User: What shape does this take?
Amino acid sequence: MDDKQLRCLVALQDVDHMIRERAKEKELGFDVEGVDELQKMREEIAKSIATPLLRTYERLRQRYEHAVVPVKNGICLGCFVTLPTSIGSKGKENITVYRCENCGRILYWLD
Ligand SMILES: [Zn+2]
Assistant: This one.
């Protein structure tokens, strides 16, 4: 698992967020444009993500608004639990994908 995968995953989440926002606007009766483009962008990004990772993401997405969350000062910003230091420090150098032990979200480290 490399850094690019994680960045793609964060990008995918951003696009998903935009799609969701537009869907809400549409429900409110607004004229929403660009959804097709966003869907296309989503497919493109999804192609660069390994299938198991993508599956994990999709599963988490059904439970949480944010499936991929940043870690700051050793705290998972999804559930605000302090992560074990072993995860907290490993993640910075090693780019393997880590998941929060408490909430299961996929973690990434802010620089
Ligand atoms: Zn968490």
